[in-house]
Amino acid sequence: MQGEPPDKRQRQFLYEGLAEMLNPQEPLYKLGEEIDWDGLVKEFSKYYVDFGRPSHPTRMMVSLLLLKQLFDIGDEKVVEQWTHNPYWQYFSGKLRVMRRI
User: Measured at the alpha carbon of residue 25, what is the angle toward residues 20 and 27, in degrees to the nearest 5?
Assistant: First the structure.
């Protein structure tokens, strides 16, 4: 069963402030903006079934694989780095910048 991405309308207490502090010129930030995440979710959705326990969001899983390849690290190291690096979290869709209208 395919996991759902977090509700983008729901504000988060601390994450929003942290995401606002990120530098949009950072290469990983730019790469995260360039990738067609919705297209990847659509493409991978055919590999999921409609029953069972929900998975993690597709963007999270794909981004972790990309980070492993980009930085040539293993599973444990990518998770360790992800928990401490807000740019990695932004790249994976965990942190979102709230655009002001």
Answer: 110
The CA distance from 59 to 2, in Å, is 11
In the chain, the DSSP E strands lie at none
Q: 63 and 93 in contact (C-beta within 8 Å)?
A: yes
- Give me 86's structure tokens: 């807000």
CA distance 28 to 18: 16
Q: Which tens digits make up the pLDDT trace of 44-54?
A: 988 888 788 88
* Kind plus residue range of the DSSP H or E element containing 82: helix 75-84
- 12-41: pLDDT as tens digits: 555 556 777 889 999 999 999 999 999 999
